[in-house]
Design brief:
Distance between the termini: 5 Å
Radius of gyration: 21 Å
Pfam families: Lactamase_B_2 (PF12706)
CATH topology of the largest domain: Metallo-beta-lactamase, Chain A
Number of domains: 2
CATH class of the largest domain: Alpha Beta
Mean pLDDT: 95
Domain Metallo-beta-lactamase: 13-187
Number of helices: 12
Number of strands: 20
Structural class: alpha/beta
Strand order of the largest sheet: 6-5-4-3-2-1-20
Protein name: Metallo-beta-lactamase domain-containing protein
InterPro entries: Metallo-B-lactamas, RibonucZ/Hydroxyglut_hydro
CATH superfamily of the largest domain: Ribonuclease Z/Hydroxyacylglutathione hydrolase-like
């Protein structure tokens, strides 16, 4: 069996991983490179047999819908089957249809995606692939247990233990995964070895306090960070509004339709949506509004007393501090702004926890800009540091 990380051994995002036997070849994720530079265009990723006809590929599987994992979908030959979770597929379809640069070709390609279900094995050639739904800042994210030729590979994808569903990871590892031969793990936070993450429940509690202190609370967060949006909406007390635009409402509704039967957390929260202007009663009663850093929401926020308002910045801070960012000006619309965010990725300590439970013979880091630091987490394990395009034989 061969494993090759085509991109992502020494960077965060823009990743693609190949796992192949003599009979079967799959790719996991195929994303755009992340950058804070304005007008940046990701370098195309060329993989023989995937982006051209120089070879074969049986399938491409996406762990979740973030662009650094799916952004190069259209480079995949159209006859190659793509797989993802059912909810992730619907979110990608809604996001693509909503985009101001709607890509009809991409929309059509998304319609061809086949879906898998958590815990139900998927057979592709001689590979048994079992997806398990895990917590990340994208709902419907998956890790994969890949079994073939007597070997077991755990591909973690992006994950965390401090999210709404973080406790499910131990259940997955204890009940269904057990010991594996190889763990291919994300390592986004390895470069910040002392990083500690607050939980989504901590953020929800802080939001409740802000709602008592301020009449108007504006939350600037990623539109598809839907666990965050639902948790925030659930923090709003009776008698106050919880507002979003029609697009965010449709996304939350889609999540609820897929998952409300599995958890009460995903029952449709109290949300009122608007198209151009918020309801006039919001001025009287106050409450919470989800916003984005654009001219539409700038004009809306200016309608309210800045002394009674606060903007909660609920996105990775790098977007705020990058040169030329418009976000500082947006945050200045109210007298006060505060950060209200936690990472979508596992802390170094949580990475250690997962690796120890899976007890692999080999640990292969990726989705990290400091792979060499992972050895300090596992001094007694064999850590394999690959280069992009380098093959590992198992």
């Amino acid at each position: 069996m061969k494993l090759c990380i085509h991109r992502g051994t020494h960077q965060i995002g823009g990743i693609a991983t190949e796992i192949a036997t003599e009979k079967t070849r799959i790719i996991i994720d195929m994303g755009d490179v992340l950058s804070l530079e304005p007008d940046f265009v990701s370098a195309p990723l060329d993989i023989p047999g995937v982006t051209d006809t120089n070879g074969h590929c049986d399938a491409v599987l996406f762990t979740h819908y973030h662009g650094d994992h799916t952004g190069q979908m259209l480079r995949i030959r159209p006859e190659i089957q793509i797989y993802t979770g059912a909810l992730a597929k619907d979110i990608m379809r809604l996001s693509s249809a909503h985009s101001y640069q709607k890509d009809e070709v991409l929309c059509k390609r998304m319609e061809t995606i086949r879906t898998f279900s958590a815990g139900k094995p998927l057979w592709i050639g001689d590979m048994k692939i079992t997806p398990f739904c895990i917590d990340h800042s994208a709902v419907d994210s998956y890790l994969f247990l890949i079994e073939t030729e007597g070997k077991r590979i755990l591909y973690t994808g992006d994950f965390r233990l401090h999210g709404v569903r973080g406790k499910t990871m131990d259940k997955i590892l204890d009940r269904w995964v057990g010991k594996v031969d190889v763990v291919v793990t994300e390592g986004t936070t390895i470069s910040r070895m002392d990083s500690k993450n607050v939980t989504e429940w901590d953020l929800q509690a802080r939001l409740k306090a802000y709602l008592q202190q301020y009449k108007y609370v504006f939350v600037l967060c990623a539109t598809t960070n839907l666990d965050r949006i639902i948790a925030c909406a659930r923090a709003v007390p009776c008698g106050k509004y919880s507002l979003c635009d029609a697009y965010q409402f449709e996304l939350v509704k889609t999540v609820s339709e897929h998952w409300h039967e599995f958890s009460g957390f995903y029952e449709m929260p109290k949300l009122t949506y608007f198209h151009q202007d918020p309801p006039t009663r919001f001025t009287e009663l106050g409450g919470l509004m989800f916003v984005r850093a654009n001219s539409k929401f700038k004009s809306i926020i200016r309608q309210f007393d800045p002394g009674q308002s606060i903007i909660l910045y609920s996105i990775w801070d790098g977007y705020r501090t990058k040169p030329g960012s418009s976000i500082p000006g947006f945050l200045a619309l109210t007298d006060t702004w505060e950060p209200l965010h936690t990472s979508g990725h596992a802390s170094p300590e949580d990475l250690r926890h997962v690796i120890e439970k899976a007890d692999p013979d080999f640990v292969i880091p990726m989705h990290t800009d400091a792979p060499q630091k992972i050895q300090t987490l596992f001094p007694d394990r064999t850590v394999v540091l690959l280069k992009d395009g380098e093959e590992f034989l198992l």
